[in-house]
Amino acid sequence: MSHDQLPMTVPAEGLPARVRIHEVGARDGLQNEKTAVPTEVKAEFIRRLADAGLTTIEATSFVHPKWVPQLADAEQLFPMVSGLGGVRLPVLVPNLRGLDRALALGAREVAVFASATETFARANLNRTLDESLSVFEPVVRQARDAGAHVRGYVSMCFGDPWEGAVPLDQVVRVCRALRDMGCDELSLGDTIGVATPGHVRALLTGLNAAGVPTDVIGVHFHDTYGQALANTHAALLHGVSTVDASAGGLGGCPYAKSATGNLATEDLVWMLRGLGIDTGVDLGRLVATSTWMAGHLGRPSPSRTVRALSHEDTEEH
Ligand code: HMG
Ligand code: MG
């Protein structure tokens, strides 16, 4: 077997024809690394992801460098990749200072990141939930005035390590607030990976009932309990066609206890390929990229698909 191994394609009813993968490995993945990754390696990672066919690659965050030192090189990194043709390069901005930094470098897509819970808003943004929404309001307005596309993340949509269960209406309220501000799209974050498929369907149904259409919703599953792919399938059945994932399953959040890596992009591409859903991604190139990155990080990728496909190259069967 080689990198070219692919699943048999057997389409299933009721799923979108095409899925846009919002690749977060360079941001969500690298923000959590203990060792500093050189800026040139990050740039090469992003170039390779683009070469593998990913068209939305979250590049970095313009947050406070002391809060996330791993991404303190955003000013150096962004210009190194901003010329990549045909690739959307969203960046995270927590406030107006972050937006100014991003726009000054020509960013065309930004993301604010809210929390469905009070405790995480304080841990991640040093603000109450409502204070953080007040901070985002002018960020979204000014970003849109500048012609930028705005994504609104909502973390802890399915559970919170401090508060436990998170009521659906609390999540819906924050999503609605971000939409009312003008966010073009939302991303529902399962920051600590506790969601299960019925919960995903229930939240999507609740959002629709509150006037948030499915076509502005993306899903962002961390894979702590191995549920990310099942949750993604549930979201696809509901009509969601934007799925966040990180190459090689890198990821986590430095301000959330028990957050592990995101859904691995390779695992997602394998499933979508089998379902006959077009992503435009070359799985072999992507696996090679994650294997290369794992070499830089000094540990193997947790992605089952990366392991299966990269082991096959070196082992006799
Ligand atoms: P703060 O300390 O309250 O900031 O942090 P402040 O507003 O009080 O300002 C203090 C100083 O920081 C000022 O400097 C500001 O200029 C400066 P001084 O006047 O004292 O010299 N400052 C900045 N400098 C550079 N860039 C900025 C910036 N903002 C203020 N943008 C703040 C508040 C929001 C800045 C801080 O809490 C922060 O940076 N937090 C980011 C945390 C983070 O990045 N978390 C990970 C991303 S979220 C995530 O991973 C979840 C997600 O994946 C979805 C999911 O899985 O759920 C998206
Ligand atoms: Mg995340």
From TrEMBL:
- List keywords of the entry alphabetically: Lyase, Metal-binding
Q: GO molecular function, one example?
A: hydroxymethylglutaryl-CoA lyase activity
**Record flagged with keyword Metal-binding:** yes
Q: Which region ranges are annotated with the description Disordered?
A: 298-317
Q: Does the keyword Transcription apply?
A: no
The domain of life is: Bacteria
Q: Can you give the residue ranges of the Pyruvate carboxyltransferase domain?
A: 19-287
Q: Which GO terms describe its biological process?
A: ketone body biosynthetic process; L-leucine catabolic process
For this chain, the family text in UniProt reads: Belongs to the HMG-CoA lyase family.
The protein's name is Hydroxymethylglutaryl-CoA lyase
Q: Which organism is it from?
A: Streptomyces longwoodensis
